[in-house]
Amino acid sequence: MAAGIHTGRARRHPWAAWRRWRKGRPFWGGLACVLAGAEICAIPLAPLEIMIHQGIAGIPSVLMGLIMIIMGLTAWFAPHYRTLAGILTVLVAAAALVMSNLGGFLIGTLLGIVGGGMIFAWQPLTAPAAPGSEPAPEPVPEPPAAPPHDEPSGAAPPADGKAWPPPPPPRVPPKPSASPSPASPPPPSPDGGILPPPREPRESA
Per DSSP, what are the bridge partners of residue 194? Predict the structure, then answer.
């Protein structure tokens, strides 16, 4: 019984590896390009009564067919060049319609255009998320850092743990200015009266 289980696993393993390889690249588009190139290359080898010669002994047909086969293989073994391979395949297939026996009697041109479009449009599959896994939480934006305080050049904060910079000294209110003393009254006269204020001397003319 155990031998039968191991045999079944060994038989399924190559098929699973083939499926993984096929899904990791534009397989069907590359296959269409290879078939189109082979069909265009085979036309010059046909009997003369069914072949339409264009160019020197059908050299354009062979060259275009080889280019399409190379683009199909590039899509298989170098999928990261799929955009270039798809565009070149479509251009060569369209040119073969005029330069190579009507594009292999339209079969090669149609296969090349369809295959090039499939190669160009192919996108790799993204890995699905596990069924029990939760989506990752969104990162919380950090608050902006406070701007640094401007410190005087050459000054260092105290080592005793006090606040830095030190608070400004308290303001002292200005003292009131001394008011001018009033003019002293004129001295009294000997008879008890008040003497008149002295007169200012007049300048002589």
Answer: 188
